[in-house]
Amino acid sequence: MLRSFLLLVSPLLMSFCDGVCFMCPEICRCSQKSITCNSATESLKSRTHSRLVLNYISLKIISTHSFDGLKGVKRIEIAQSTSVETIEKEAFNNLLNVSDISIQNTRSLVHIHKWAFNHLPNLKYLSISNTGIGVFPDLTSIFSLESDFILEICDNLNLRSIPTNAFIGMTSEITTMQVSHNWIQGCNLHGSGILRIIIDISIIIEYIH
């Protein structure tokens, strides 16, 4: 009887448990292989959600168009995952009203593909912190129109450098970049549009042009 009940339980509660469980947001569709949060899944619910919280994701890959075309969502938070290794191209795509994206405490995350963050015109805050990335993520297709854009890259101990032209296309407005607790040994920000750099207890910054 109990087993039958569990099989019928809403897909909102995923069986991704290892001490803690991942709960699929109401406006998304989740399986053991994918997460889909788009305009189609969002429209199935009468109640709007301005915030998506995805903790303890057990998937290895956040795939292309996982977050695509959402209209009511303004904030997306991904945290506390020990499984996520890769974020694919256009995983965050065409999110016209999203202002904040944070990816934190995902130490298994090592690959963020080019154009993973694509066409996010209202994005004003992006945090990629406490991950395992060793290559600075490509942010050139964000195309934010917001002023005072804030980029937070913190506690990524495998990150060694920031490449030339890393920020072209990210935003056309003023950008503040907060860099702390990384092993960044060099970066070239010439022509990048970065106006302010906040370096707070960074382990080593050898040169900034």
Automatic annotation (TrEMBL):
Keywords, in A-Z order: Leucine-rich repeat, Signal
Signal peptide start and end residues: 1-19
Superkingdom field: Eukaryota
Gene3D superfamilies: Ribonuclease Inhibitor
InterPro entries named in the record: LRR_5 (IPR026906), LRR_dom_sf (IPR032675), TSH_rcpt (IPR002274)
Gene Ontology cellular-component terms listed: membrane
SUPFAM superfamilies (alphabetical): L domain-like
GO terms assigned for molecular function: thyroid-stimulating hormone receptor activity
Protein's UniProt keywords contain 4Fe-4S: no
The keyword DNA damage is annotated on this UniProt entry: no
Protein name: Lutropin-choriogonadotropic hormone receptor-like
Species the sequence originates in: Carassius auratus
